Structures are given as structure tokens and as C-alpha cells.
Amino acid sequence: xxxxxxxxxxxxxxxxxxxxxxxxxxxxxxxxxxxxxxxxxxxxxxxxxxxxxxxxxxxxxxxxxxxxxxxxxxxxxxxxxxxxxxxxxxxxxxxxxxxxxxxxxxxxxxxxxxxxxxxxxxxxxxxxxxxxxxxxxxxxxxxxxxxxxxxxxxxxxxxxxxxxxxxxxxxxxxxxxxxxxxxxxxxxxxxxxxxxxxxxxxxxxxxxxxxxxxxxxxxxxxxxxxxxxxxxxxxxxxxxx
Length: 241
Hints:
mainly alpha; two-stranded antiparallel ribbon; 2 strands; 2% strand
């Protein structure tokens, strides 16, 4: 009985924290959606790297809503000893855990395929919006400045973009000199070819691999917490009358 009460109380406490995290993510997601520029100013190139590939505002809102729902379900189920809520929580968390494992396997095994898929999505958007959409342009400028990179693959991603058509040059970050730590302007095609600044996706992969231990530890910690929550919810479920 003491073990049951301990597990119940710990599950309520832990999942209340998840509930609060969901509320926080919802708030940040709404903030990013309403005022993305101030978000970029505070968090800089790290946030802009993610914003190249996903709409961070909507992503955070979705993640926050999911955590909000999971936290509420588990707290409600444990506090009221509702078997339906506990089982729903367990199944949802199990689906999320399986999806995370599958995504990790795909990311490790099919990196080249993922890069090709992202290229098909991101490069046409650069050619369409860079130089005409201020928020989108600011995201890329912050990323290229922070990571010393150029475009998704290289300078050719900007050919045909509103910025290139208007100025007939590439963004100055595509002519970055790593020796002198300066940019060469105007960044013509000849200069961009000579500088051969690598794309931001390659640089982002390099940063992730450089910090692989930290990334792996965080992922393992999240997975362990999810497994512990599933075990606790199933323990409570099986010991309810």
C-alpha cells in the first residue's frame, strides 16, 4: 500500500511538471507566432536554425498542447484513480515513444535521404521568399551570420530569389573569409565560388555531431522519463480495483 501511494504521489508530481511545461510551451509558441522577430533577437542563431525547417511557433503550440493533455490525463487519472485516463495516457506515451525511436533510427540510417527531402522543401522556399518576406529573410541572415554558412547547400540556393534579382549579388555571408573573419561585398558569383562557403545544413549537422554526447544524453534522459511514466501508469492501472 505504501509503495502504491508513493508511486501515485510521484506520478502526480512529475506529470504536474509536464503540465506546467505544456503551458510554458504554449505561451512561447503563441509568442513566436505573434512576434517572431523579438524571439530571434533574444535566442539568436540557434533558434533561427530550427526556424529554417519548421514553423517554430506552430511546432511549440502543438508540443505544448500535447504535453498539456498528457499532464492533465496522468494527474487526473492518478488522483481520481481513473483506469480509462491512465490507459489513455499510457497508450499516447507509448505511441510517442515508438515514434521517437523510429525517427531516431531514420535520422541515423537515412541522413542523406533526409537531406535530399529537406532540399526539395527548403531551397524552393529560399528562391521564392528570400528578399521579399522580411521575417524569412531575417531568419536566414541570423543563421548565416551565427553559423558562418551560406544558404541550405551553398550560394546557388539564392539564384533567382527576389534578393538576387533586385541586387544581382548574393548575400554577403556567402563571401565570408574564414582567414580574416570578414565578409567581402559585393558578393558576386565569382567571389562566392572562390570562397566556397558551406551550406547551413552541413554546418548544422557538424554542430550536432560535435555535441553528440550532449544530444544523446538528453535523448536518453527523455526516453528514460517516458519509460518510467509508462511503468508507473501501468502499475497504478493494474493495482486499481
